[in-house]
Amino acid sequence: MTDVVSEGDAGRGTRTLRAELALKALRTDLGSPERLRSVLEQALVYGGASLALVYAPGDRGDQLCLIESAGVPRALYGVRDSYPLSGGSPAADAYRAAQPLWLGPAELAALPGARPAPAGDHWLAALPLPPDPRGGGCLVAVSESPGGFDTEDRKCLELFAEAVSFPPPSGTGDPEELPSSSFSLAMDSGRVEVDDEMLELFGLVPDDFDGKVETLLSMAVPEDLPMLMSVVEADHISVGERELEFRILQPSGEQRWLRLRARLLPAADGRPSRLVGTVADASKLRSGGNEVARVQRLAAALATAGTVHDVGQAVVTALRRPLNADRIALAELEGDRLVVTVLDPPEPEAWPEVWRTEWRSEWPDAPVRTMPTLEAALREGRTALWPAGTPLEPALADVGPGGLAVLPLPAGGRMAGACLIGWDTPHDFGPDERALLTASAGLAGQALMRAHAFDAEHELVGMLQRTLLPRRLPPLPGAEAVARYLPTTAGLEVGGDWYDVIPLPDNHVALVIGDVQGHNAQAATLMGQMRTALRAYAVEGHPPDVVVSHANRLLMGMETDLFATCCYVDVDMAEGTAWCVRAGHLPPVLRHPDGTTDIVVTEGGPPLGVITQADFPMSPLPLQPGTMIALTTDGLVESAELELDDGLDRLAGQLAAADPAHLGLVADALLADANRSDDVALLLMRYDGLDLRPLRESWTVWRVPEAVRHARRFTRRALRGWGVRDEPDAVLLVVSELVTNALVHTEGQVRLDLTLINNRMRVAVVDASPRSPIKPTSIGWEATGGRGILLVEALSATWGTVPVSGGKQVWAELPLIEPVGD
After folding, report:
1. In angstroms, how far apart are the furthest CA atoms of the chain?
2. How far lies 625's CA from each of 135, 147, 479, 619, 756, in Å?
3. What does the pLDDT read at residue 492?
4. Cis ω on the peptide bond leading into residue 345 (within 30° of 0)?
5. Is 363 left (phi over 0), alpha (psi -120 to 50) or beta?
6. Distance CA 796, CA 649 (A)
7. With contact defined as beta carbons under 8 Å apart, do 623 and 577 qualify?
8. Phi-psi region for residue 733, left (φ > 0), alpha (ψ -120 to 50) or beta?
9. Whole-model pTM over 0.70
10. Alpha carbon distance 729, 726 (integer Å)
11. Residues sharing a CB contact under 8 Å with residue 412, sequence separation 6 or more, in sequence order
12. In 10 A of CB 720, how many CB atoms?
């Protein structure tokens, strides 16, 4: 066999030879969009690239504009739709110099205006294209492989760069210059130019068409309209080719499947200008000899499907659109119930009445006994195909009036479930299609059994984890907070990550995030204990360092060898100040209102449970309205491939680019590429500041005979300073009673705190006794005391007591009828 290899071929690698053969096998015309995309897809296969793009000069010749791309989303690497020819981008440099560039992470980071890419380190290649009437261009490829593009990769990419040929320019958009069944849509005006053949597909007469794209969109089935809008709205798409299938309602009322292939062409400035493409009858485009490839794709998708829902989605993707089916359902068989896991389309009105009546949230189910035909197919275990007109029970007949395929899903000697595929219009089942459905059923059954076992165990783990975390976060005055927890997919053991948001008196709030060593039931139990302990110590009124110190001593006293890390942040919402205490945990990341970020690496203490007499110093955090605080565990920023410092830098970069107005979207975006080999906890808070800052005054009460009179005089001065012209007698009486009660029944220091906000006065007296005042149930005429608390209750809108650092605070709130003014 080696004799057939030429002398010239002997020096080339096997992969390069396969790439040459793949290019020769392309049957599309030179310059066609299909050929260009095929060349880029082959660059992904043979050139070691995860993303490949082609740029060409724009109409004005001062920019390189994106013509086509293939691979992962280019936003992962910060690749843009256009580059100035005079700029310092790799694409422009390679184009001007007519020499290829091979850049690693260090060279990319040194480029002007470079920012960390969400995907992390990557390598980039820029290769000039052969000159052509359009002025040549540039092939750009991106790789995440360690070490970047090797010698064989580079030879293949050079081969593909030489093979690139461009589709012709968009021209004027004259329908006579366009291919059959084609259109040209101006993105700025919404005017669309179509030929007669395309109007015939839509069932329209040329004289009745007004030239508006809205007219064509109005004929789409409502369920498919959002998908179409994503193609024709410039704000939602980027330069390149799009392909999708959709349904229209013809004037006769019948539905027709159409397939759209379109390309968005850029203007001279690189922005979307014109969408050109073709529309064809999808029923005429069905492939008759691609069943083997479909089965291979389905097998690959099911190999990575971890959950029952993933299995269902893989089956829908592999079968519904390629078979032009109108609906498909995947269901598990549990006893005599058919538990549906995936319905496509998902709208209840698209399914028979029995399915709608059994609808239950996201997991509807239907009894098998109501469908004898389905029950018989499951019992026999063979694929059943029912053409149009077959008398079936209504629950099945309405699923596929034009044809129905029932696929029992065998696994492990029993039926794991069933897959139903239905058509609305008469459908012919060819022999190749029968083989495809039978093979797909066997693959799906085995995958369904594996996923069901995984789902059951994972749900048990998730339920245990959810019971140990807050069910919901409390509303915060002057701030908004969101939290996310993402369990690991590497195993089925519960983790020890936790978070908490604790409202505290005087407009304070505590943010807590932590991580217990290990992934097992002991770690989860300890996590619940530490979360409860920190909350209890915080509510007692201790400062942050004391709260963490108490939790450390508690853990040291437990019979465990595990330790925990945590970060505790106390935020004063009224003053806009915060204090942070770290116990072996990651530092907070702040995003300031101007978009800059800081990784606040402050002095911290050791992890909890390591040293009994440990110091946990407090560090201030700078806050101003609009500042976002991000607390996370190491699962988000550290992995086997990602160093901790690099992960924190990436997190800071993602926060800088985020929109703080939508915290939920920010949290979801941060977790989109999270490392699933470890648990991840994330807590975000945006500090907005109180709409009206409270007025505060404090005074230490002297233990002298005139102490109560001094407290009233201090209160009068504070009220006059705040603009209250007439001192309310109720406020002075409440001050007298609370101060008297503290002086008579406690020892040590007594402090009077006055707060005024929104014409509401808060009087609080702090003493060193933890014992709360007791309201008497009855008082005789001869009693000389005990009426103070009753007076406070009668005069106040509300009152109460809270623990504060070993003592307590007794407080009362009273409304001021008179507006506060000068």
Report:
1. 123
2. 52, 44, 9, 20, 21
3. 47
4. yes
5. beta
6. 51
7. yes
8. alpha
9. no
10. 9
11. 449
12. 12
